[in-house]
Fold these 2 entries.
Entry 1:
Amino acid sequence: MTNPEEATELAALLDAYRRWETAPPLTMQMGFHDAWLLMSCVQMASKHPAVSARIVALMRHAGEAIQGAVCDTPELQAIAAQGWEDLLTMEGPPPPGDPGPRLAGTGVFHGSERVRPELLEPDRPGEHVWIVTVAYRVTAETLTGPAEAYLDQESFAAMQAGCYVCEQPFEKRLTHRRCPGEPG
Ligand SMILES: [Zn+2]
């Protein structure tokens, strides 16, 4: 529920968005250092895991406007463009001895990007590491090219809970049992 204060803020924002629809583009002056910093901040912020794909697309649109103004050499343009492409960076080939990506029984995709690997470690030996994996349908173009991935309600395909370590799907009875460790 929104309180009166929030409702007033929301009304002010909605009014602004309506006016901005038809307003001419903003003209402003900014130093090159500030502009480059701002663009880099937008790139970094857009990689935060809590930011939805749609907001990422909006952030990218705004960031690229700054990028177009600040990048005064092709080299800078390339560096800035790479900053966006890193959004969908996947790990390179696995190091020797690493079995590499595999789709396990729980649907855990090992070898994928791990933002906070410490969360995937048991707190105590023998403890299951319960996780929920979420599957989104994407295209090959999304994973290989500049196309933007919309990880939203429309592409949401599946969700499953299981142990990251032993890869057993979650069952209440397993919470009383020791985690047997990595399978096989
Ligand atoms: Zn386990």
Entry 2:
Amino acid sequence: MKTKRITKIALLASGLFCTPLMAETDQAEKHFARCVACHLAEGQGIPGAFPPLKNRLAKMSNSELGRQYVVQVLYGGLMGMITVEGQNYSGVMPAQTGDLSAKEVSELLNYAVNKVDKNGKPENWKPFSEKEVERLSKTKGNPVSNGNLRKQLLENQRDLK
Ligand code: HEC
């Protein structure tokens, strides 16, 4: 009897602790679906149409400039010729954040990085926080200026080619 009750309490307690976390992941997964529409489920992209995020997003968001770039692309969009792993793209990515809060964007980004870079993130990679997204998204840029920011990022980070 006693064990049963303890199990019940334990289950209840784990339920209480788990729910907010799981709800957060579910939400992030739902929001990430908008990226999947173009960049595909594993972020592998479509050569010539949608660039891959796989094995890149974590690396790209591992410096102050890179984090600024990624947040700006989400808030302000990206347009213009870019080369990713030797393949050219000259597409348009519309801003994606629409009705999302900074907290939701930070969760979406953390989810995205863990999803597309599950084979490994740089050791010192830090998750995005709501505060950071709030701060970085004060500058949204526009699709063209974000393309220029990308050039600057690639000059600083040669391993992003
Ligand atoms: C409508 C299609 C579309 C959707 C939806 C979309 N993207 Fe993109 N994304 C693109 C295209 C196209 C480019 C390249 C733009 C260019 O050619 O200049 C791009 C570029 C990027 C880049 C820059 C890559 C680089 O190498 O510089 C990042 C980062 C990115 N997307 C992340 C995301 C994330 C995260 C989401 C979801 C929140 C998302 N995208 C949703 C089409 C899309």
